[in-house]
Amino acid sequence: MIYLSYRPSPPLSLAVEAIWLYAGYSPPHRLERVLPSGTIEWVINLRADRFLCYHPETYEPVEATAGALVAGPRASVQIIDTEQQREIMGVHLRPGGMQILTGIPADAVAGRDVPLEELWGGRAAILRERLLGVPTPQEKIREVERWLAGDLRVERTPHRAVAEALRRLEADEAPVKLGDLAAELGLSSRRFIEVFTAGVGLTPKVYASIRRFQKALRTIHRTARCGWADLAIDCGWYDQAHMIRDFKRFSGLTPAEYARLQGDFMLHVPVEERGQICPIPKPEVMVGCRR
Fold first, then answer.
1. What CATH number did the domain enclosing 218 receive?
2. Who has the most CB within 10 Å: 140, 160, 212, 262?
3. pTM here?
4. Among candidates 112, 116, 113, 134, which has minimal Cα distance to 125?
């Protein structure tokens, strides 16, 4: 398996955290849970011009989209087909990056998979066709970078309140009291929620909860054994019961179930079907081209 992740230079890096590609992904399981990250992903299927989405409980196909899509920020698990992940690439946007890159509020795509053509029109299909003719993974990434740079408008910047709120929420400090933060920024709570949701696609409260969930995932992912009560407190929950509630809300799993099923990719968890557990295999080749 080949995995590439590239961090673009400024000013594109103001909106885009990474352009990525992987190929040769062939796990033994059919479906995966994709856990919420609170961010937006642009994804292009380089094998087939479509993606399928599945019901999170029945695992039956519920929706098909074109092979180039915008995966909006979510607060719930998504089920994907590993067959459609054999050769894909994408763009991982920074929180607030959607408005910088396109001028479109992030909440316009929240909780949805939107065909990229709704944002770019016919250019989306042209880009995918062009990528199919580019010979190497590195060149494909450079081609996407050129297309994105052509759309960037440096005058589009996040609302100052959104930028400051993100800085505070992403800092590994004491939990932020959102009402106090809004007052510090000179906004009413209602106005703060409006501008943050437009920039990020989720309300400040939901985004903060997902950040806490992500912190717990990172700890479980790198630690063989966890004390659940201590983990809950360390990550900002009031107690273990509140942590388990949020885990089920965001992933459909308890922390213990996540620890048992996890593979090498923190946000991708094999779906357990008929009691059979098929872990995600380790990549054989890991190639980085980070700046």
1. 1.10.10.60
2. 140
3. 0.88
4. 116
